[in-house]
Amino acid sequence: MFLKVSDKVSLVLSETGFMFCNCVLIDDEVRTIIDTGLDKKALQEVNPPSIDMVLYTHHHYDHIRGHNSFSNAKSYMHKLDYQATQSMEAIDYYNSTDKWDELMPNVTKEEGVKALNMPTERKPWTTDDSFEDNTIFDLGKTKVQVIHTPGHSAGHCSFFFPEEDFLFLGDICLTAAGPWYGEILADPEDMIKSIDKIIDLKVGRIATCHINSICEDSTLKLIEFKNRIYKREERIYNFLKKGPASIHELASNNLIYQYHPTPFVLFWEKLMLIKHLNQLVKMGMVEEVEKGLYAAK
């Protein structure tokens, strides 16, 4: 399904679940798609062999899973995420799955992957080139500007269409489950700064990879989304005021996610808890009283 932004620009919807994503199709002289995580039906509608260029918001699997279908396209990703797909070691490091055994002692990584319906084996690949903040791609009548918006990943980017007054936010997703910052180079403080940067742009219309609509008057939505980060930190601190706790104990109390429907959701909660604990320690509000055990000061 296509939602028209303009004559040349459309939001392409994936309707199969969160392991796929919405993408943006620019049907111009340089036929371009932003992200390739479309479900099977949407992928067929886009006609991958006709695409000249692929731009990526970031390196996560649900955004790159269709990459091999776009064999005629030149592909680009921000320089800070560019290396994340180039080897199995890089895939594990950038996705923090090298921390799985430490954080998930009772579930194997293979069981976690299977529960997400992801392939158990992923092959490394690379984009053709990288880009930087404020790079402008001239696609014909359409121009698109890279806006570096880290936090979800180090190289996460949004894409601004100035003539259309439209901004594609990628995984600053505005879903009920977000924000997400569950990998080694993700950073909730960067996420806050990126959301503020987006608000300051005062763009008329936005869309994300996981909301099936084009939103107007998005400032309040963005502020509420950002404030969830502070509320999570407050819940963690208030819990630790009751007594010391480990990452596993904190996660079992669902301080970030209300439910853990798959092992990966629990894994991501633990990774995000570590981010918050590090920040609370830095602020002098929490201390590690012994290895792996945290308490409020």
Largest sheet, described in full? 7 strands, mixed
The CATH topology annotation of the largest domain reads as Metallo-beta-lactamase, Chain A
Query: Under the CATH scheme, which class of the largest domain?
Result: Alpha Beta
Rg to the nearest angstrom? 19 Å
Structural class label: alpha+beta
Percent helix among the residues? 25-40%
Q: Into how many domains do the coordinates divide?
A: 2
Global shape = globular
On the 0-100 scale, what is the average pLDDT? Answer: 95
The fraction of residues in strands falls at 15-25%
Through-space gap between termini: 52 Å
Strand order of the largest sheet: 1-2-3-4-5-6-7
CATH architectural type of the largest domain: 4-Layer Sandwich
* Strand element count: 16
Runs with pLDDT <50, length 5+?
none
Total of DSSP H or I helical runs spanning 4+ residues: 9
Tell me the series of helices and strands, N- to C-terminal: EEEEHEHEHHHEEEEEHEEHEHHEE
Going by CATH, what is the homologous superfamily of the largest domain?
Ribonuclease Z/Hydroxyacylglutathione hydrolase-like
